Amino acid sequence: MLKTCLENVRAGCPLVHSITNYVTVNDCANVLLAAGASPIMSDDAGEVEEITALCRATVLNIGTLNERTIQSMLLAGQKANALAHPVVLDPVGAGASALRTSTCRLLLREIKFNVIRGNISEIKALALGSGSTQGVDAALADQITDANLAEAVAYIRAFSRQTGAIIAVSGAIDVVSDADRSYIIKNGHPAMSKITGSGCMLSALVAAYLAANPANPLEAAAAAFVLMGLAGEKAAAVSAGTGSFRTNLLDAVSTITAEDLKAGAKIVEF
Amino acid sequence: MLKTCLENVRAGCPLVHSITNYVTVNDCANVLLAAGASPIMSDDAGEVEEITALCRATVLNIGTLNERTIQSMLLAGQKANALAHPVVLDPVGAGASALRTSTCRLLLREIKFNVIRGNISEIKALALGSGSTQGVDAALADQITDANLAEAVAYIRAFSRQTGAIIAVSGAIDVVSDADRSYIIKNGHPAMSKITGSGCMLSALVAAYLAANPANPLEAAAAAFVLMGLAGEKAAAVSAGTGSFRTNLLDAVSTITAEDLKAGAKIVEF
Amino acid sequence: MLKTCLENVRAGCPLVHSITNYVTVNDCANVLLAAGASPIMSDDAGEVEEITALCRATVLNIGTLNERTIQSMLLAGQKANALAHPVVLDPVGAGASALRTSTCRLLLREIKFNVIRGNISEIKALALGSGSTQGVDAALADQITDANLAEAVAYIRAFSRQTGAIIAVSGAIDVVSDADRSYIIKNGHPAMSKITGSGCMLSALVAAYLAANPANPLEAAAAAFVLMGLAGEKAAAVSAGTGSFRTNLLDAVSTITAEDLKAGAKIVEF
Lengths: 270, 270, 270
What we know:
The structure is a homotrimer of 270-residue chains. Helices cover 52% and strands 14% of the residues of chain A.
């Protein structure tokens, strides 16, 4: 299934529309191209519906939210819903400000998301309407470990049931789950948290994988997580610091084959 | 002539003003520096005329168009016209939305462009007021091949006659043409389409080359295309994936000499 | 002291809020992570005060100024002042337009800056309300040399006395000075001026170093300059062009140890 998911992206070259932050937007475009998909970024309310309609998936990322783009996100997300295109929410820094938290609530109310991809702090902020956010990283107290895994999965499934979305939580241990089934993924490397954009790129990949694998969204999202984590492992093995790690991460995404993905996956169903 | 064009950029270090998209803006700044030019980006209507006046060329790139920057583009373009500075239009995604197409028409009506640099789909969208755009890439049916080259050149010359601009079309085969004379360039590498920004960077280089070679704009634009294509070839030969390709592309632009450019050029007058 | 400054950043992992330009924002985020700090970028007036309050330092960078973000800068800077968090001004291109100069004056009037970090042209533009700016680089006539060093230091100290800020001037010779004491730093490499973002990244590092070393702000700012300059030297020694230089610069920032910093520093008190 992992192999098929990757092959479908490379064969189908899905065009993905991202309304995203200007910190990591270039990385998001490049990771989509590296994976075999195609990016388009547009955020003006006057065109986002048309751009969404041209694409096969949409990502809404609130990393550098502003009043102008909130409206654009609503329009794009609702258009994607109308067309039954997958929509991914990346609630960057949810909980860090009232604006971020209230915008997430607004988006969750007005748009049906197929996947919500964040760290556990962000997911908790959405679920609880509270939670502390240390910049864009998960607070230490909120990390998923082998010890609290069962509790975390139960929490995540409950939020999936509430939202109807696959909840895809990245961290040292990843959990990709719908209301009933969960994948636990242990690919990845700590170096991924020493560059900006690991999370944003992962959300973009999830959108591309969903677009190309519409019949198996949970497996598609999990495959995107395995790909990103495996790329992080491969990049870390050949990097001399954080600059080359970023470069090598894109190299790895662009060269990992379906066979590599299967061979390197550290994934179990929970 | 190619050699002189490159040497004039490195000797003159032209300052180039770009109103451009936030996806590839960093790449555009870095490619200008790599080529020996100097970048400045500014997009607020309150200052763009002054910034344009400080510079020797202006690029208007509609990649992430919004209502605020359209007004800034008009002001900057008209100021550049008044000062007889070269102005380059990069109609990213023209045809993908009504906003993009109508904005291009507005810009073409209000500003005299020296060069319009796009892929053939974008150029067709401008010329016909129609055309399909697959994200930022030329649709397959619209690619210029040896078989349809004569037809393509005739089409491009007609659009040049209509607009008064040099039409610079990038693809597997590039065409850089005014109403009477055309250069066909076969430098480049498919890897260039697997990173974001190849086209945007090329538009920035065209502006720098025009600024430094005011007596020979057609040759200057063609030289910028040869430089970018040759850099793509050199980068592809030493890259391990799309991440390192992007890095190596900038390395190549920064190290290609006038001799290299002449020796590596695959250019003919048509 | 240099060693302690670096160690305090790595141990304390200060979260830094940047309201900055979209040209180099990704580089700024990555250099903060490379140095052991943590970045957050936000620029909407509706949330910047909350984000500032979460952080331990704030950077205001006017590189791609617009009316919307000026208001956000005022709110963030005043909030940082109220919380006694360090605030760094990067007056990119001050003097290049009336908007940039008047905005700097407004920010200087309404916010107490701990450090103003620019090239000598920008600092002169702030000090004199005049000055010519060649894009983002110091005009040649304005460079600090051994011959004019005493004069430059006197000028910089006077501006420090006037503003109450540490004035941190980057160039071939750096001067980091308050009204009474000055450090002269000769680390660095000309390649740093051939990529975009060297200055912006340095301003971000200064903010992180001040946050982690509140008792010694002058030494902290100087240490950030030594780190950036030393990283430039190390990167230049192993780079094949401007693309790899940028990558290697981040590698160097991420791997330079406290011992390296002390051993490689070219710093004297003036």
